[in-house]
Write a structure and sequence with these properties.
The protein contains no helices and nine strands. The protein is mostly beta strands and 81 residues long. A four-stranded antiparallel β-sheet has the order 3-4-5-6, with no helix packed on it. A three-stranded antiparallel β-sheet has the order 7-8-9, with no helix packed on it. The two termini are 22 Å apart.
Amino acid sequence: TIDHGHKMQMTALSSHSKIPMIAAGSPSQYIKIMSYDGLTNQMIRFHRDEQRIGPVSSLTFHPHLPFLAAGFADGTYCKCL
């Protein structure tokens, strides 16, 4: 689960191969970026022109740089970091 005030379901997970970083996505479009020890580094919520988008369905880090790409169930995607 992802905890940002309350627990919620996790729909996607990715870890960086070179940097001690994990990203977890939720059905309510939140992406939580954490260090390996579980401390939250950043919380992201993607908004597209104020319309509701689908749940986070995929996350992947760039193999060498601290960039994260996110895909959503409705086909929307973004580069987050």
